[in-house]
Amino acid sequence: MKIIAVSNQKGGVGKTTLTRELSACCALRGYETLVVDCDPQGNLTSSWVDADVYEATLAHVLIEPEASPTGSKSEALPLEDTIVESPVESLDLVPSDIRLARFEMQADYLTHRLRNQLREAFD
Ligand SMILES: Nc1ncnc2c1ncn2[C@@H]1O[C@H](COP(=O)(O)OP(=O)(O)O)[C@@H](O)[C@H]1O
Ligand SMILES: [Mg+2]
Q: Residue of the nearest CA to atom 17 in ligand 1?
């Protein structure tokens, strides 16, 4: 498994566009590709799928159980349970959620948990 992260603090510099094109190119070249939308704005997610296609998002995976997006004390979901298909063959997506904004001041927490989840699911 290879993980490529696209990150820049500045807005409007092409993060979403690069992520979308790069992940689609990987998939079209035959690599099984999972694109994980970590941006609370969710522009990458909405560029691929309608909101009624999914219920679970990355926020449901990363959230602390006592502060789950539904407000209930449910367990965090496994990453696999949030994956949806994109219109591109071999390209799957973990949708974003506005509730990821709560992690913006804890980027290390988000990346650490996400890395562990990816390893658990795909290593
Ligand atoms: N390589 C590029 N050439 C020209 N315009 C681009 C390029 N990459 C992105 N854009 C445009 O720049 C704007 C911001 O890109 P976006 O990917 O949304 O940035 P970010 O995700 O960093 O906010 C969009 O209108 C997008 O279409
Ligand atoms: Mg963006």
A: 14
Ligand 1 pocket list (CB less than 6 A): 11-17
Q: What digits encode the pLDDT tens for the residues 17-68?
A: 999 999 999 999 999 999 999 999 999 999 999 999 999 999 999 876 555 5
pTM summary value: 0.90
Domains and CATH numbers, the chain: 15-122 (3.40.50.300)
Question: Starting from the edge strand earliest in sequence, which strands make up the sheet with 84-85, in order?
Answer: 33-36, 91-94, 84-85
From ligand 2's centre to the CA of 5, what distance in Å? 13
First to last CA, the chain: 7
Residue whose Cα lies nearest atom 14 of ligand 1: it is 12
How many angstroms separate the CA atoms of 77 and 54, rounded?
A: 14
Residues in CB range of 26: below 8 A, 6 or more apart: 33, 91
